[in-house]
Structures are given as structure tokens and as C-alpha cells.
Design a protein that fits this description.
heterodimer; A: mainly alpha; MetI-like fold; two-stranded antiparallel ribbon; 76% helix; B: mainly alpha; globular
Chain lengths: 282, 281
């Protein structure tokens, strides 16, 4: 029912915009990753694989990448551990105040990232709120230093930030489970535990997968939490990119790392999409 | 309806309630601490807070540097909303109604910034602006926000479009209205609520955005970047005070957004599920 002119009118502007501001920038990123920077800090447009060789040669890059993946994995696991039971509670237990409880999870989601990161900084610092509290209770008599500026602080802060992100798709998938399936399982004699493991959990897996992907990918690329609460031992791969684009001034090497991250993320999304299709056909 | 044979009073159910309460505490405690210490006379830290005062707010309200960045952020967010909503509306219509070569790629590309870490969007745009010899300024930040947030606007409006009754548009066309009039008189009014909801969301997200802005910043700061640069100099309760105000403002906008959202659908749908469903669609 829509004419050719209509279809072109709606499709062409966003196509153009996306080409100029997403596709071309990614292409430039791709080009940069094969260029070099001269000792005089001029970018030389000669093509080589040197940046990628450097990434494999110098162990620091892979080490930090693996550390970032470990941190992202820990955040994902914790966010699921907090988000899944919460979603289950809301979907199956909360009855009267369900709407209010749901909104209470949404609100922190849209509270500024910076505000939440900053809050943890003031709590975990050596003269922060937590240390003040511990000394007030006489549990310690001098400040505990290791709360702040550690991978632990990064994991804690990012778990706080991404738990609502993981909660939402899990909750949506739990809400979509037809309740008569659960009744059927119980009528056929399955215990509540068996009903959970054999019916509810498998049906909610697409939501779990979506939530986990969000938490993992966004943590993997984060550079603000490490700067805010991480300290030197909490440095992640994006921090290296930031320094290569700043003081260290090696855009081509930074571009190579960014491109690897981009490929990693897109591959992950592709795999998740495949897996999700498979799960929903079961 | 209780879906499980456990009655709400069973011990298992009690443990779940306690666990859920703890998760809520984890989500809200840091935010509460932040707000409480904005009234603490002896600065951020220590326990218990003492010497309650409003002086940090007084200092904040006299701080012109901060309010200039608030204005910058508001301008950036307003233009980002215009960009994201216009292109998001067109992209949603295109995804819903048009078939063209590369449509699948287009859909993935539009939605990618939603899940892509901000650093990649920020850096690749930085390289574009350098290649185009554009000076970094509020304009480059605005273009960055607009581009990144088209994804949010598209998913929100696409979800609204799914609920639209196409028979109305057909009726309008059958009765002799052309596509242009049908668009203005039928399609757009039906999408009004989801467009306002999307605009509120984009506005809030732009106000808070820091990862993309980090790379596109020129001479004038946005509010989050101003806070960021002050944090490097040390923490003061003045930052708690501005954070508390941002917090209240975000909550107010979100409540309006949520109202709009639930008024159109009985189901408590959230932006993220529709976002994720959008990726599969």
C-alpha cells in the first residue's frame, strides 16, 4: 500500500545519516589501524600489519584484554545472580505492588552513570563512608585502603550499574511464560524445584542471554569506572585505548585495539542471536 | 494468581522476599548515601554524617561555571532529541514498511550504538571529524549524541508502530487523502505518545552521556564532563549536591516517561526488552 516515493522518503535520510556518521567512521577506524605514527608524531598513511603484530608481541595488551574479560565475566555473573531472583520475585511473588516494585528497578537504570560511579567512590574511599562506618562500629581502628582503587571496586560499581540492565529482559521473558504451562507441570506431579529447572528456567533463557550480553559487552568496553574507582590494578582495555588517543599519542595502535573490540562485540552479538533463535525454537 | 504451589508465606518464599529486599538495598543504598552527604557539614566521608547544612547547595547555586555547563548540556540534549526523533521516526517507518537492499545491515547498524561501548562510537566519530577538519565543539558532541541515540528512538517508535492499526491508514488513502496528508493526519498523531516517550528518554540519556562526549569535547564542557574534570581535583559535597539535583530531575522525567508508556500499553513494557526484541525482529 506504500508507494515507491513514500518508501524512499522514509528510508533515504536515515540511510544517509547512518552511512555518514556510523559506516564511514568505522571505515576510517579500519584504515587508521593499518597506519603508523612517526617519531615526530605525524600519522603516516602507509599500510602494514605492524599494529596488529605489536598487539600480539607485547603481552601487556592481551593481559589487559583478558583481565577486562574476567572483570566483565564477574560483573555478568553477579548481575545475573542479583537480577534473576529479583525478576523471579517480581514475576511470580509480587502481586499487589508489582508495578511500583518494577518502577523501583527502572529508576536506578536512568540515574546518571557518573552519579552512581561517584557514589561508590565516596563510599569506598580510605576516608570514605564505609571506612567511617566501620570505625564508628569499632570494627577497625584505621582506614581499610583496599576497598577503593582495585578490580574489586570496579566489579562492585559496574555490577551496581548493570544489574537493572540484566533484570529487564529476564523479567520480560518470565512475564511471557504462559502460566498454564507451570500449572500443567505441577498437575503432572513435578515439585516446585523441578518445575523451575525444567520449565521456568529453560523458557527464560533468552532473557538471561540478552541481559548477560548487555552486562558483558558494556563492561568490557568501560573505561570510566576504572578511572573513577579502579586505580592502576583495575585498568581495562579501553583505558589503554584512551591513553593511546591521549598522552601516549598513537592513534593507529589505538584504532587497531578498538577495531578488535568492535569485531569481538559484533561476533558475540552474532553468536548470541544464533543461540537465541535456537533456544526459542525448542 | 500464585503460579507456584508455595504459598506466599512459605519459608522459601520468605527467603526470596528477603533476597529481593537486599537487592533493592544494594541498588538504592549508594544513591541514598550520596544524597545524604550533600547535607553533611564536614564533607564527604566519615560516619555518622553530622552538622547538617544547606551550604553546599548555596555554594552550588553561586557556581556560575557549573550552571553554564548545565545550559550547554540542555542545548546539546534538545538538539540531540530533534536529530534522534526525526531520524528514529523515519528509520522505524523504513524498517516497518520499506524493503530495500541492505535492509538487514541497516537495521543492525542503526541499533549497534545501543549495545556498543561508547568508546567505539566516540572514537570513530572523533576520527571522522578530524578527517573532515571539523573543530571539536558542542556541535560535534551534539552530532555524536544524536547518532548514538537514534537507536533508542528507533526501537521506541518501532514498538509504537507495531501497535498502530494499519486499517486507519488504508481508510484514509481510500477516502482520497494522499500519503503526505495520511502521514500528518493519521500516522503521526497515532505515534505521538511513543514519540514523546522516546524524546524524554533521549533527553535524559543525552544529559547523562559521558563516554561518547569524552572524545568529542571542545572548549566548552557539558555538565557530566565538568563534574568529571572536578572529580580529578578531589571530591567535595558540592558534587553530591549537583548529583542529587540531577537525580531528582532524572526521576521526575522517568516518572513522566513511565506514565506515558503504561498509558498506551497494559503490559509494563520497558525500553530494553523492546530494544532487544527489535534486534531480533
Amino acid at each position: 500500500m506504500y508507494t515507491r516515493a513514500y518508501k524512499s522518503a522514509v528510508a533515504i535520510p536515515p540511510l544517509l545519516w547512518v552511512t555518514i556518521f556510523l559506516l564511514i567512521p568505522y571505515a576510517i577506524l579500519f584504515c587508521y589501524s593499518f597506519w603508523q605514527v612517526s617519531p615526530l608524531q605525524i600519522i603516516i598513511h602507509s599500510w602494514s600489519l605492524d599494529n596488529y603484530r605489536e598487539l600480539l608481541r607485547n603481552h601487556i595488551y592481551l593481559e589487559v584484554l583478558f583481565r577486562s574479560m574476567r572483570i566483565a565475566g564477574a560483573v555478568t555473573a553477579l548481575a545475573l545472580l542479583l537480577g534473576y531472583p529479583l525478576a523471579y520475585f517480581l514475576s511470580f511473588r509480587a502481586t499487589k505492588r508489582k508495578d511500583l516494585l518494577y518502577q523501583l528497578v527502572i529508576i536506578p537504570l536512568w540515574v546518571s552513570y557518573l552519579v552512581r560511579g561517584y557514589a561508590w567512590k565516596t563510599i569506598l574511599g580510605s576516608d570514605g563512608v564505609l571506612n567511617g562506618f566501620l570505625q564508628y562500629l569499632h570494627l577497625t581502628n584505621h582506614p581499610v585502603e583496599f576497598f577503593l582503587y582495585s578490580p574489586f571496586a570496579v566489579i562492585l560499581t559496574l555490577t551496581h550499574i548493570y544489574t537493572p540492565f540484566t533484570f529487564l529482559p529476564i523479567y520480560a521473558s518470565l512475564e511471557h511464560i504462559p502460566r498454564n504451562l507451570i500449572e500443567a507441570s505441577q498437575d503432572l506431579g513435578a515439585s516446585p524445584a523441578r518445575t523451575f529447572w525444567r520449565v521456568i528456567l529453560p523458557l527464560s533463557l533468552p532473557g538471561v542471554l540478552a541481559g548477560a550480553t548487555f552486562a558483558f559487552v558494556l563492561t568490557l568496553g568501560d573505561f570510566l569506572a576504572p578511572l573513577l574507582v579502579g586505580g592502576p590494578s583495575g585498568i581495562m582495555i579501553s583505558n589503554i585505548v584512551v591513553s593511546l588517543f591521549g598522552a601516549a599519542y598513537n592513534w593507529p595502535l589505538g584504532a587497531a585495539i578498538s577495531l578488535c573490540m568492535l569485531i569481538l562485540v559484533v561476533t558475540l552479538l552474532f553468536l548470541v542471536e544464533r543461540l537465541e533463535k535456537k533456544l526459542s525454537f525448542q | 494468581m500464585s503460579a507456584n504451589s508455595n504459598s506466599p508465606a512459605s519459608p522459601k518464599s520468605l527467603w526470596l522476599t528477603i533476597y529481593a529486599t537486599c537487592v533493592y538495598a544494594f541498588l538504592y543504598l549508594p544513591i541514598a548515601v550520596l544524597a545524604i552527604y550533600s547535607f553533611n557539614g564536614t564533607g564527604v566521608g566519615g560516619f555518622p554524617p553530622k552538622n547538617w547544612t544547606l551550604s553546599w547547595y548555596r555554594i552550588l547555586f553561586k557556581d556560575d561555571a557549573i550552571w553554564n555547563t548545565v545550559l550547554n548540556s540542555a542545548i546539546v540534549a534538545a538538539i540531540a532529541v530533534a536529530i534522534a526523533i526525526t531520524l528514529g521516526l523515519l528509520a522505524a517507518l523504513a524498517l516497518d514498511r520499506a524493503n530495500f537492499p541492505g535492509k538487514a545491515l541497516f537495521r543492525r547498524l542503526v541499533l549497534l550504538p545501543l549495545i556498543l561501548p561508547g568508546i567505539i562510537t566516540g572514537l570513530s566519530l572523533l576520527m571522522l571529524f578530524v578527517a573532515a577538519t571539523m573543530k571539536l565543539s558542542l556541535l560535534t558532541i551534539t552530532l555524536g549524541h544524536g547518532t548514538a541515540l537514534i537507536s533508542v528512538a528507533t526501537t521506541e517508535i518501532f514498538a509504537g508502530l507495531q501497535k498502530l492499526d494499519r486499517a486507519q491508514e488504508e481508510a484514509s488513502l481510500d477516502l482520497g487523502a494522499n500519503h503526505w496528508i495520511t502521514f500528518w493526519r493519521v500516522t503521526l498523531p497515532n505515534l505521538k505518545v511513543s514519540m514523546i516517550a522516546a524524546a524524554l528518554l533521549v533527553f535524559t540519556l543525552s544529559l547523562d552521556e559521558i563516554a561518547v562526549s569524552f572524545f568529542l569535547i571542545g572548549r566548552s564542557n557539558t555538565l557530566p564532563l565538568e563534574i568529571w574534570s572536578r572529580l580529578r581535583r578531589g571530591i567535595t559535597p558540592e558534587i553530591n549536591a549537583i548529583s542529587t539535583i540531577i537525580l531528582l530531575f532524572s526521576i521526575a522525567l522517568i516518572l513522566v516517561w513511565y506514565r506515558l508508556r503504561t498509558r498506551t500499553s497494559n503490559e509494563a513494557a520497558a525500553v530494553l526488552p523492546s530494544t532487544i526484541q527489535g534486534e531480533q525482529a
